[in-house]
Amino acid sequence: MTLDTVKHATETPDVEQPWKELGLKEDEYTRIREILERRPTGAELAMYSVMWSEHCSYKSSKVHLKQFGEKIPENDAMLVGIGENAGVVDVGQGYAVTFKVESHNHPSYIEPYQGAATGVGGIVRDILAMGARPVAVVDPLRFGAADHPDTKRVLPGVVAGVGGYGNCLGLPNIGGEVVFDSCYQGNPLVNAGCIGVMKHEDIHLAQASGPGNKVILYGARTGGDGIGGVSVLASETFDSTGPAKRPAVQVGDPFQEKLLIECTLEIFKEKLVAGIQDLGGAGLSCATSELASAGSGGMRVELDTVPLRDASLSPEEILMSESQERMCAIVEPDKVERFMEICEKWDVIATVIGEVTEGERLEIFWHGEQIVDVPPRTVAHEGPVYERPYARPEWQDALQADDANKLPRPATSDELREQVLALVSSPNQASKSWITDQYDRFVQGNTVLAQPEDAGMVRIDEESNLGVAMATDGNGRYTKLDPYAGAQLALAEAYRNVAASGATPLAISDCLNFGSPEDPAVMWQFAEATRGLADGCFQLGTPVTGGNVSLYNQTGEVAIHPTPVVAVLGVIDDVNRRTPIAFKEEGQLLYLLGDTREEFGGSAWSQVIHDHLGGLPPAVDLDREKLLGDILISASRDGMIDAAHDLSDGGLIQSVVESCLRGGSGARLIVPDGLDAFTFLFSESAGRAVVAVPRSEELRFNDMCGARGLPVTRIGVVDGDEVEIQGEFSISLSELRTAHEETIPRLLL
Amino acid sequence: MTSRIGVVTFPGTLDDRDSLRAVRLAGAEPVSLWHRDKDLKQVDAVVLAGGFSYGDYLRAGAISRFSPVMETIIDQAKAGMPVLGICNGFQILTESHLLPGAMLQNNHLHFICREQKLRVETSETAWTADYSAGQEIRIPLKNMDGRYVADERTLDELEAEGRVAFRYLDFNPNGSLRDIAGISNAAGNVVGLMPHPEHAVEPLIGTGRTDGLGFFTSILKKLVSV
Fold it and tell me: Which residues form the active site (chain B) (predicted)?
């Protein structure tokens, strides 16, 4: 068949086009025809279809996400906000930090290793494109039931992919989560976060300005991988001799990405680029249209100059390919030569594929014939926006009425002891070291804290010891019970984790994983969760700097638990002052900070012991969270505490066991007046932490908490080689260690 | 004048900056070396750092061994220049036949990252003089292809000549024969090991121990005393 040029499209207005197969709605196709005042060419149709997809255009979520920009708290730290590749915050001493969390859920179910690997690769390029050196990654993961046979297929593949890619890039993996729940059985969540560091003056933006500036594509050659809907187009409309069936999941080459990182950082150092964008979802379609849309001029691209891995690719396929490890830079003509030299040094292929033009159009040519002529904004930034209907599901009331506080509780001390062991050995509460030991946490030599600590922490300046910390959290069970509160609890927990490590929370990124937006119940969950998160960020003073929405996470009609994952970034002036979770020093006093109430809705206890989900999640009090955070940070700065561990899923006993095992010391605990042992151990009331205080600091620490109005209860002492609840039971550390550490290898090996 | 210690960057090397830092903290002058460059910039010793040089897509270290910089390093090592190969560097040294044996994929088939206990078996090499024979240290270990293998005769020879420099204690993390974590050449100037001393040089970072610093102070003392 002939090439579908702009001229050809104008002359043949009535050609049937596969817009439906490409995922466009009829009114969307009509709108494209209105914008162009003719039918789109095959290449244009391909571009619009991917850029107007849910994944790229946020068309269902946009109306809710704008709250993050409207309810923005006063915060001097924000340097670059939502809309760029990643947000940037000021962390002091001239440094800026960029960070973001993204999802790669669907590819990871189909092809766990490559799906997860390219998830890491994609987020790292986003961070790199801002001008920063990537310094750490985190990976919040959700899988189906731990004992389900398919989990054995998906989890090891995902973990090997995260490790295989991240380890080969030389990025320490410092945190994340692993959660099992049958709701994720057919739809695991693979989220990946990255932190990058730069000086303020090195911030780069994705925009193409300055007519005559060259558009340089560099990195890997373009292949046929990662082409989803476009294979439809290629096979139906175009040359049928071309390669028809393509793998929809991209294939990663971390070695190429490592070269790309070092090469790009050297290019930044010599200030050779005017604008830069990584190639991720929607490949060149996205990079060219976004760069042109954000800049002042237009852009002309000679598509046939793109280096290919497979010479038989059609122009549509080249535009849509999501081949990994590619970047697109805008370079002034007199800097092109030096740019090319640096690429040659790092064995990175670089090609001038076009230039910035005076006009306002994105024009793409194929061997001299024009196949794309569009206003770039209509592709990149002016896609459709939907006000999807939403409604509180009718089952919500029944779910909330099914009160977990009324579940049968352990009647004897023996039963209580058994339930403690059942809890700490349950898949969600068990040690994840079998997984995290497959990730390099030491590389770069700046890792101060890594999993299983509350937050990961890296040093960013060797002279001043300035550091940053990050924690990611999200509890789908809480969010299912109450999406507004659940999103705030995710935020509160990540905030608390960062503060417990001694760092001051500064800003957040989020990855919002939900079911189908076409289901009003899911849309209600989404609306409530985003509202909760926006309100929470406003109250805590931590702005949303960017993030990602992943919808359609469901199997058939059944959606996953709504799972907003929140990443909080914190800063610490001197990493020497960081607080680990380990209870080490015998004789140190253990204090419980915050209020403990009978709150078991969505709790780990209700899941492990009763396989139950119902009632209300723990109450949220963000002012209390802030106060608790302030106390933890002050105590760390002034050397009043030697260890701190936040309390969240699993309650006090889970945190105490983790801290004891981490430090190799036992603890003797006394049930405080006014609480029963069960509530003391298993309640998941928010806004709490347990700290170890040296005896010499006891007075000062108590005075500080008293003066600032934070409830503080002495609950015991670091001592011996068992965890003892006085008057109830004791369990030796070795028994706890076996219970805690053997579960995951047993299930997965 | 202090001693100059070079650290080679191959494409895909990851721990080069860490090794340069360790050299600096030990008091020597760190010098970056580039894989395409035969010139060693008058360094007194060389560290081949960890990573995945050339992606390790063929066999770990197999391609690096043929790089221009290795031509010079192989010649100089044979002439007595101290060379330390860490992880991927160890793999490059075996591929270069500066050290005997080879590295296979870990017996459990997973990447493994952990704090590893080792016994330093000899203080007679250029890189272990600051330790005492039998001293136990704990430093990070992280690799995919860390299973040291050699034929029985070679292993017996290494043992007899005191060239098993480090042995895994408590737990063999990769199935290495005879728990071997690192070895030296007959002259003691070339040492290779899988664990990472350069990640254990500061009290706050990584595992919070400085057990690895001795590698770098050992070589510095040796170079200064020559």
Answer: 87 (nucleophile), 196, 198
List CB contacts (< 8 A) between B199 and chain A. Answer: 442-443, 445
What domains can be seen in chain B, in order of their start residue?
4-225 (3.40.50.880)
pLDDT in tens, B87-108: 999 999 999 999 999 999 999 9
pTM of the model: 0.95
Identify which of A259, A347, A447 has the shortest CB distance to residue B205.
Answer: A447
Please compute, for residue A256, the number of CA atoms within 13 A of its CA located in the half-sphere on the CB side: 20
Which residues lie below 8 Å from residue A249, measured CB to CB, with a gap of 6+? Answer: A107, A110, A111, A114, A115, A118, A225, A226
Rounded Cα–Cα distance for residues A38 and A634 (Å): 64
Listing from the earlier edge strand, what are the strands of the sheet with A447-449? Answer: A447-449, A456-459, A467-473, A563-572, A504-513, A544-550
φ, ψ of residue A63 in degrees (nearest 5): -65, -25
Does B205 sit within 8 Å of A459, measured CB to CB? yes
Query: Which amino acid is located at A55 in the chain?
Result: H
> φ and ψ at A208, to 5 degrees?
-110, 110
| Geometric angle at alpha carbon A218, from A216 and A223, rounded to 5° | 115
* Residues A306, A314: Cα–Cα separation, whole Å: 12
Q: CA A167, CA B146: separation in Å to the nearest integer?
A: 15
Who's near B102: CB < 8 A, 6+ residues apart? B94, B95, B148, B149, B150
Q: Could you give the percent of chain A with pLDDT greater than 90?
A: 87
Query: Inter-chain contact B204–A259, Cβ cutoff 8 Å?
Result: no
Band (A157; pLDDT cuts 50, 70, 90): very high
Q: Average pLDDT of A310-319?
A: 92
HEC readout, A640-704: CCCEEEECCCCHHHHHHHHHHHHHCCCEEECCCCCCCHHHHHHCCCCCCEEEEECHHHHHHHHHH
- Among candidates B203, B209, B186, which has minimal Cα distance to B195? B209
- Single-letter code of the amino acid located at A185: Q
Q: Which two tokens stand for residue A556?
A: 């058939």
**Residue B1: how many other CB atoms lie within 10 Å:** 5
Give Cα separations from A448 to A163, A215, A504 (angstroms): 20, 40, 16
> Cα(A264)–Cα(A676) distance, rounded to whole angstroms?
59
For B14, name the nearest residue in chain A, comparing CA atoms only: A170
Distance from CA of B193 to the nearest CA of A (A): 17
Tokens of A11: 């002359």
Place of tokens 């490949």: A283
**How far is it, in rounded angstroms, from Cα A22 to Cα A233?**
7
Residues 6 or more apart in contact with residue A515 via CB below 8 angstroms: A522, A525, A551, A552, A553, A554, A558, A559, A560, A562
What is the pLDDT, as a whole number, of residue A282?
85
pLDDT band per the 50, 70, 90 thresholds, residue B125: very high
pLDDT band at A47 (very low <50, low <70, confident <90, very high): very high
Identify which of A135, A258, A250 has the alpha carbon closest to the alpha carbon of residue A194: A135
Average pLDDT over residues A714-734: 97
pLDDT at A79: 85
Distance in Å, alpha carbon of B44 to nearest chain A alpha carbon: 24
Instruction: Return the structure tokens found at A576.
Output: 């020497």
Q: In chain A, where are the structural domains located?
A: 6-61+204-380
* pLDDT tens per residue across span A100-152: 999 999 889 989 999 999 999 999 999 999 999 999 999 999 999 999 999 99
pLDDT mean over B146-154 = 97
Instruction: Say which residue the tokens 């969760």 belong to.
Output: A529
Known catalytic residue: A55?
Answer: yes
User: Which amino acid, one-letter code, is at A722?
Assistant: E
- Give the whole-angstrom CA distance, residue A370 versus residue A363: 7
Mean pLDDT of chain A: 94
What is A6-61+204-380's CATH number?
3.90.650.10
